[in-house]
Design goal:
heterodimer, A: 280 residues, mainly alpha, 17 helices, B: 295 residues, alpha/beta, seven-stranded mixed sheet, 7 helices, 22% helix, globular
């Protein structure tokens, strides 16, 4: 990816609005004297745009942290609740992410897919030894962040790639590679790396493609969660293809895709919760 | 080393007959190293009387450490008299504000807008320099090492530890010890508590073993529940942290602006009595405008 493209996309995210429901809730909660810090954290950590922007600030060079902050709760303890609240308010003031975009990318379905992937990844983290549930949640929430950036700032190229993937069932990664020269995993990872997010988070976002996986517990949880939410049609983020879990991931998660889904039990409550939040 | 209090009042200057003993100026503390280098902690209204004494020792190099950008900690800056006299240097240190996206230069820039103050920054005769600091990254000021520690307040607040010739001072600026926003048993409680514990441990380490600990002690325990989340400490939190960090002397400051001298002394006596097990062997004092402590 060219440095110009990387610079342009990073700058574009600064001015990018958050999802309508979180903007509305942030405004409501900050005006409500009876609201609690917990209420606001619960809103922020479900919005990929707000989450990215807050982690970007707290991990910035201005604070030179010895260890990156990967959760909103940690950001609140580190910078103080009021600072996080005011950052959220500044983001809310930008406006709301439009429901329609010229890429014809359904941002509501995207949010549902991201939230479902986040929650499932968090559950899968309990099955493995070396993945923090909160980190898996954030990685799941942000694994497709590159797509919503494309939809906003490179809609025509993104639309072409979506159409091609839909027409022949081919991988969206390959289609994006052809139209933009970089897929959403590369762009998402590039952005979060530029913003000094934790290396494990960057690595997990970068290695989500079946032919480019890495064998770690965190990647297994997020890759697995991504396939599960696609298989169960929890939202939709433009990629029709559902991959079977490769053997190393099966080993880590204790079974193939169907077995892992069965072992998770009833996910309807999880999906309903995501639906409430993603409703535009 | 010498510490002198020029402003000990929180929030807003509070002159009048009821505050005449402890003083009504807002936060400003003068520190002199053994080499007589000048470090000023915060620039509340107390910096104005301090600055008048500096005219006798020009040219002045004033190293001002701003804990945070709230009015009661910066409001005296435009009236820092050495700024108007050539040959002096004001070196202003402080943190980066993530909400405004600006460094410490903003505390001067916002106050020297022409609508609010008749002299613009460009017209100041002294040399004015800005040093934006990072948490836990020490800087050298003359013979002193200054280490900022990120504390908890509605706006980014640095506590400062000053070490010099084996002597040390820690000033909190405004600080409320972080607390868990979840209730025990709720999802997220344990994770959040781990962050809170880690943060409180790091703060204690920053204060560890100081000779002089100057702490935000705005409220009594009885007042605190209605002020929770406002970013201030209490007599109990200051006493507890002084004890846990092994500070040699604790100065309680940032006195609540509506508290009269009599009420302040009564609240202090009450706190000492209620925490007798911790306080009986501690040197604890109320910060008082004009007082000097040399060690």
């Amino acid at each position: 990816m060219s440095p110009e493209l990387s610079q342009r996309l990073a700058a574009a995210v600064d001015g990018m609005p958050a999802f309508p429901k979180s903007v509305q809730r942030i405004l409501e909660l900050t005006r409500d004297v009876n609201s609690t810090p917990k209420d606001l954290v619960d809103v922020i950590d479900k919005d990929p745009v707000v989450t990215v922007k807050i982690l970007k600030v707290v991990n910035s060079a201005y604070y030179s942290l010895p260890k990156q902050v990967t959760s909103i709760g940690h950001a609140v303890v580190y910078l103080g609740f009021n600072t996080i609240k005011n950052l959220a308010l500044s983001i809310a003031a930008i406006g709301m992410l439009p429901k329609e975009n010229s890429a014809a990318f359904d941002v509501q379905q995207y949010l549902l897919h991201s939230l479902a992937t986040a929650s499932i990844a968090k559950q899968l983290a309990l099955k493995v030894d070396d993945a923090d549930p909160m980190d898996c949640f954030i990685a799941g929430l942000l694994h497709d962040f590159g797509k919503v950036v494309f939809a906003q700032f490179m809609p025509q190229e993104f639309k072409t790639a979506l159409a091609q993937s839909a027409a022949d069932g081919s991988s969206l990664h390959a289609a994006l590679q052809a139209t933009i020269g970089a897929d959403h995993a590369v762009v998402g990872a590039m952005l979060v790396e530029k913003w000094r997010f934790a290396p494990a988070l960057v690595e997990t976002i970068r290695h989500q493609r079946i032919d480019n996986l890495k064998d770690t517990d965190m990647i297994a949880c997020v890759f697995g969660a991504n396939q599960i939410s696609k298989r169960l049609a929890f939202g939709f983020a433009g990629n029709h293809r559902v991959d079977e879990l490769p053997p190393p991931i099966q080993k880590r998660l204790g079974g193939n895709l169907d077995e892992v889904i069965n072992a998770l039990g009833d996910l309807s409550a999880l999906f309903q919760e995501a639906q409430v939040f993603a409703k535009l | 080393m010498k510490v002198r209090f020029w402003g000990v009042r929180g929030s807003i200057a509070s002159p009048g007959p009821k505050t005449v003993r402890y003083g009504g100026n807002t936060t400003c503390i003068e520190i002199r190293t053994d080499n007589n280098e000048l470090i000023i902690l915060d620039a509340g209204t107390g910096i104005f009387p301090l600055s008048q004494t500096l005219l006798a020792e020009m040219p002045v190099t004033a190293n001002v450490l701003i804990t945070h950008s709230h009015w009661d900690h910066i409001q005296g800056l435009p009236f820092f008299i050495p700024n108007f006299i050539p040959g002096n240097t004001l070196r202003l240190h402080g943190g980066f504000d993530p909400v405004s996206g600006k460094g410490i230069e903003q505390v001067m820039a916002v106050q020297l807008q022409y609508s609010y103050f008749p002299v613009r920054e460009e017209e100041m005769k002294a040399r004015i320099e800005y040093v934006t600091l990072m948490p836990d990254q020490p800087v050298q000021i003359g013979s002193a090492t200054v280490t900022p520690c990120l504390l908890n307040h509605p706006v980014v607040d640095f506590g400062y530890r000053i070490d010099c010739n084996g002597k040390s001072v820690f000033f909190t600026g405004d600080h409320e010890p972080p607390y868990n926003i979840y209730e025990p048993g709720e999802e997220g409680y344990a994770d959040y508590q781990a962050f809170v514990d880690e943060k409180n441990r790091a703060i204690l380490e920053a204060i560890r073993g100081v000779d002089v600990y100057i702490a935000d002690t705005s409220y009594t325990d009885a007042e605190y529940p209605s002020k929770k989340g406002w970013g201030h400490g209490t007599f109990s939190t200051s006493i507890a942290s002084a004890h846990a960090a092994g500070a040699k002397v604790l100065f309680c400051t940032h006195h609540e602006p509506t508290r009269s001298d009599d009420a302040l002394e009564a609240a202090f006596a009450d706190a000492l009595q209620h925490q007798a097990s911790l306080t009986q062997h501690m040197d604890i004092r109320l910060a008082r405008e004009g007082d000097t402590y040399e060690f």
